[in-house]
Amino acid sequence: MRPAVAVVLAAASLLTLGALPAAEPELPERLADTGGGSQLITAVAADTDATTGTLTWWDLRAGRWTRAGSAPARFGAGGLVEGTAREQGTSTTPTGLYDLPFAFGVEAPPAGTRYTYLPVGESSWWCEDNASRSYNRWTDPRPADCRAAESERLAAFPTQYAHALVVGFNYDRPVRGRGAGIFLHVNGRAATAGCVSVPNDAMREVLRWADPARAPHIAIGTTGGPTAITGY
């Protein structure tokens, strides 16, 4: 090929490349809020009727969000619903942006876990009794005003609660009737009762990755509509 022709073709190629649309920003960069930290977990379903989707964990480094890992996720058997409109007992996963107060598990924490990690014993409960002063709280042992029939004995779920992170939904100032015991935990047999779940190896990887000093949050939502994850 003659040099002049080569120069013309090269210039044309550059023009063509320049005309290509810019790459879409990574998902965290499209969120209205990421919680202010440098770690983020996103849990995304196709729509509010879905019971499956994708969990991805991200790092913010040098001003850019980068993907640290990803896994298939499960949501509530009742689908997803805006967190402020959720009702207890509906098996729906609340959408929104939440902090991650602490971790717990029936099994020992994975090596490298930096989160406060509470070991689950036979007397460890999550109180879900709306009438209790311990509503939406870990209790060990279960207090007298927290009815067992309205709560979860955590050791009764050794598979799901082998490892878990508490999702800060309705946690700081609990609203009675909105819901309690929303966690990121290990998969059971099917959809959850409102939590987000992932395979055991993914849950262990998340715990090794998560650093409370970097203020990780979880954003739960759908790809579009009023509960779109980009709205949080």
From TrEMBL:
Pfam families: YkuD. Residues 49-213 form the L,D-TPase catalytic domain. It comes from the Bacteria. Residues 1-22 form the signal peptide. InterPro entries: LD_TPept_cat_dom. Keywords: Signal. The keyword Signal applies. This is L,D-transpeptidase family protein. It comes from Streptomyces hintoniae.
